[in-house]
Amino acid sequence: xxxxxxxxxxxxxxxxxxxxxxxxxxxxxxxxxxxxxxxxxxxxxxxxxxxxxxxxxxxxxxxxxxxxxxxxxxxxxxxxxxxxxxxxxxxxxxxxxxxxxxxxxxxxxxxxxxxxxxxxxxxxxxxxxxxxxxxxxxxxxxxxxxxxxxxxx
Length: 153
Fold this sequence. Notes:
Layout: H1 2-25, E1 27-30, E2 37-43, E3 46-53, E4 78-84, E5 91-97, E6 102-110, E7 116-121, E8 133-140
Antiparallel strand pairs: 1-2, 1-8, 2-3, 3-4, 4-5, 5-6, 6-7, 7-8
């Protein structure tokens, strides 16, 4: 009986740790080069990110390599899905960059200053062209409705 209680306690601790890790990056993040805001939230045991802020709320996915997707709106487009990584304090997964239509394998790490370091590459190392991605996303508070026109300063 004591052994079963220890196993149950261990499983609960592991699941609580996973939820705590996810909550570290859940929130709103600004992509500095584009002015896009990405909302990260828990989804199906992972963390997913969707576009909720754009300089042009009517923007379309014009750089998508699939012509049938080039006219879809960027607002509310899911662009990220990551899971907690094994072997380091971060997350690994996939990111679609609508700025250039490129899909990246990414690693995310929460910096001590509260910003999110995003590293990525396309293709398999040594097999295809590698396009590096190394940016820092900053946390932002949601100051307007998703994809609403930003206020004029």
